[in-house]
Amino acid sequence: MGPVTSLSADPFAARMQTREVKWWGWGWDDRSRPIEGFPVLWTYLQQRLKIDPHIRRSVPPIGAVQIPPSLLSPDEISELEKLVGEGNLSLEPRDRVSHAVGRSYKDLVRLRTGTLLRAPDAILFPEDEGAIRAVLEFARRRRYAIVPFGGGTGVVGGVEPLADGTYAASLTLDLRRMHRVKAIDEQSGLVVAEPGIRGPILEEALAAKSLTLGHFPQSWEFSTLGGWVATRAAGGLSNRYGRIDDLLVGLRLVAPARFLDVRALPGQDHGPDLKELVLGSEGILGVITEVTVRAHPLPAARRFASRLFRSFEEGLAALRSMARKDALPDMTYLSDEEETRFMAAGRGIGPGGAGGAAGLALKLLGLRGYRIEQGSLLLMGFEGARDRVAHQRRRALRLARPAASLGAGSAKRWYAERFEIPYVRDSFLDHGILVDTVETAASWSNALNVYHAGAKALQLALWEEGGAGLVLCHVSHVYPDGASLYFTVYGVAREGQEVAQWETIKDAVTRAILDAGGALSHHHGIGADHAPYLGRVVGEDGLLVLRALKRELDPEGIMNPGKLVRAR
Amino acid sequence: MGPVTSLSADPFAARMQTREVKWWGWGWDDRSRPIEGFPVLWTYLQQRLKIDPHIRRSVPPIGAVQIPPSLLSPDEISELEKLVGEGNLSLEPRDRVSHAVGRSYKDLVRLRTGTLLRAPDAILFPEDEGAIRAVLEFARRRRYAIVPFGGGTGVVGGVEPLADGTYAASLTLDLRRMHRVKAIDEQSGLVVAEPGIRGPILEEALAAKSLTLGHFPQSWEFSTLGGWVATRAAGGLSNRYGRIDDLLVGLRLVAPARFLDVRALPGQDHGPDLKELVLGSEGILGVITEVTVRAHPLPAARRFASRLFRSFEEGLAALRSMARKDALPDMTYLSDEEETRFMAAGRGIGPGGAGGAAGLALKLLGLRGYRIEQGSLLLMGFEGARDRVAHQRRRALRLARPAASLGAGSAKRWYAERFEIPYVRDSFLDHGILVDTVETAASWSNALNVYHAGAKALQLALWEEGGAGLVLCHVSHVYPDGASLYFTVYGVAREGQEVAQWETIKDAVTRAILDAGGALSHHHGIGADHAPYLGRVVGEDGLLVLRALKRELDPEGIMNPGKLVRAR
């Protein structure tokens, strides 16, 4: 290991960890992106969804959110506080509310309508592995459910306290105070960090050594290293750096009955790889207390390109050809026709938009037979050493030839503003719009089939459940053998029945995607929402094997009940 | 899935599967490579090891090998034959001998000296998954141990029947008759095949579709797809195509109590990945009955380059720099100073050798201060699309600049003859030479430390156990964060005590490597030989977790006892 860098006293880290986030929506408390800032898109949506623009669903004050009283007695609270240290336990309503759910549409609706049925009985903020061990030991004796909590940005019900009456209470372990970088091995490009570190803090520490993790999920500012591992996350540059699965080389897991310390080795043949048991385990086995990941040299150059295909099918074929021929851009974002229209209406993504030169380019394209309203937009990014970027870009663009060039602007803008997009969602909810996402993956030979099956099921279910709807799709993670498919769904929310309405739609599309041979999830995970379908993809025996594993690590079944698989 | 290609009636496949292999040594029965064909190397070895060239250890006739009688009764045999089908069960001494051990030095010594303590009580050749299910069911009831058998080329005691007296018998399941390619999905580059298919047969089927698996371990002609997965194999082009771990996307596993069918999806987030439980499971959980792997386009171009560094340390630094800077050749083979001298004495590898132009080049190098006797040889290979090869080669060679060029010949020759090398080993054994390999992996920051620790321990142990010795090392698998280290050891065998002599040496080097922080194995696996050390790398709790997994899939503990981890 190289020199040890500790960030515990770092002002940036401290600022990041304490800056207030919304309890009712996405991101920083002082930041919002109203849809009214995108007037063309807003008009377009009103027309497509037949929305009454005067509808307003306001966010209630936090005091109006009803949560059940904590089940913990004063004695239990003081015992717990002794284990985690003074000031590291909270019973504050604001903390209990903001740890009660994640950040899916269902979650936001429930927060905004104040209909939380459950909340953690206490939130603990352990500062080290020792405190976690002590809490788990105590929880086993008292039969407390334990919910590990990273950034809380998940969208499949992974952090919701679902302990039933057989548990004495449900404690949420928020790992935000374990956010130190413990060591950076510059020679090997390895970084050892605590699980609660968020994307920007980790990147800052790495950048000081001219390194980057290269892992940028859309939740990057708020989600954590431990959370990425527990949920098997994928970032926007996964084409180049891989998923967190590919970046992870070592970890420590404190489970109620076992302790795993998987050493970081570049390659090993030590039987079944124990870190793979922890990847995607979603807190049901134990608490990840340390992670070692591969970091890469900071890219010297970054370039972008945007292309317009005549159809999504043509765009998919080009992506496939790039992936098969070693010519894949480091970032690819291919929108289907519906999403391309949506983005055109939003003028790219940001308010800067595709005006000026880009607008002129679009006009000229029209003369050549390409129409953005009927096309499929591909945004590409390339990064690394200068000559590699030039070479890779040349090879990719050659395979994108059937498409028309839109220059670099759209891709560059999308890249710059990609963390802003989730803010707009809250504005949609303000207007009574249903908006959520559904994601899957399929092999190239099955991708169009899964795409059509998913889109059709969504359109039909939207129609049956709410009337007009809009189904967009894009591909943002590409593999040699296939790709992810990411649907965004807009509809009119049925006031008072938002959750039931969405659950009906979600069930229909999930079944359709599985019937077509798509993945149950590509990177959102299983959580509580997808758990009922897990047997369909891993088989009944697969569930039994996962359960046996859980029993070995967590014999009392206290870890994150209700998620992934049942304890028995 | 694309069009289905079945090879069951293919004459090449049939020829491959029936061509006779040596029962006592490496490879085809009709092929050998005596050391006398490399006169300079042979003289060099005689000097270094102080060998009497007149010593001969001949191979006895197979009839002289003593094996215990089969424990199966005629009734049991006929019941088993019913399950696998007529002609698919063998009690022949030749079959029992050749399924009794793998292909490590210890194995070959025991075969040649006729000192096999155990042999399978019967060898079954199932033709389909149904037969395997039936056999396992029967074996559970009768308490037969089951040893799955692929190519039998492993070197860590993975196929040896180690069932103790608590088992009624030990059956070896040789999967060679399950060698069909079941489907090739050309669009996605996916191939579904049975586990017993060998490298060349699989590559032939893929080549017909302009595809390659890109997996070429040195045992490639004889080892099998299922064996690669079960042992977590790595091939000589792993820099480009990855290990089998990276190529595997789906599989079926028939275990005594469970059945796993992991679907082939390009990316998925379905909780802990069940195929990772099977990867490296070495037959202790069940029998792999089908494998889906990623195949890649056949390379249009292939180029080679060889460079001579002034030291192994300088060569390692260059490899690290290539790996960190995205400039890694698709094949790299870096020899330390001792191995470089050995290769120079062997004039490259083949009998063609480094004569002629290469000899002249070496002479000229000498004038520039590079001496092959003190240098470190790096062989490189590049393959893929023409412009990619050119680009990647240029970038790699730039980072190899401290080295002197030796042209392309040495690398090209090594690549062409890489499957021939193991044949020479039998000739060493004929001359009473101890020869085996030890492999590990380490991060870049720890690679030299592990190298020195391993080399020193080997030299010391060789000296104590036999006098003169020769320890060579090379790096053939490179990762962003580190590399493999592969030692080859030559010494003078102590006649009659060869196994004990080697076990003492192996124990010393294994402890030294683990103390230094290296991997217990990089790609040979655990088997019986490394099992006593597994707790040191996965921890006592890691062993308990693996045991729990085994209990779930194989409650009676009949699968490959004595390997990887104990059943309880």
The best one-word shape of chain A is: globular
- Measured by DSSP, the beta-strand proportion of chain A falls in 15-25%
N-end to C-end Cα span of chain A: 42 Å
Low-confidence stretches of chain A: 1-8, 348-357
Largest interface here, residues on each chain? Answer: A-B, 89 and 89 residues
Please tally the β strands of chain A and state the result: 19
| Helix/strand/pairing category of chain A | alpha+beta
- What fraction, in percent, of the residue positions of chain A are helical? 25-40%
- What profile does the largest beta sheet of chain A have? 8 strands, antiparallel
Provide a count of the helices of chain A. 20
Assembly state of the chains shown: homodimer
**If you average the pLDDT of chain A, what whole number results?**
93
Radius of gyration of chain A: 23 Å
Describe this structure in words.
Two copies of one chain form a homodimer. The model of chain A is unreliable at about 1-10 and about 350-355 (pLDDT under 50). Chain A has about 575 residues and is α+β, with helices and mostly antiparallel strands. In chain A, strand 8 and strand 9 form a beta hairpin. In chain A, the strands form four sheets. In chain A, strands 12, 13, 14, 15, 16, 17, 18 and 19 form an eight-stranded antiparallel beta sheet that branches. Chain A contains 20 helices and 19 strands. In chain A, helix 2 packs across helix 13. The interface between A and B is large, with 89 and 89 residues.
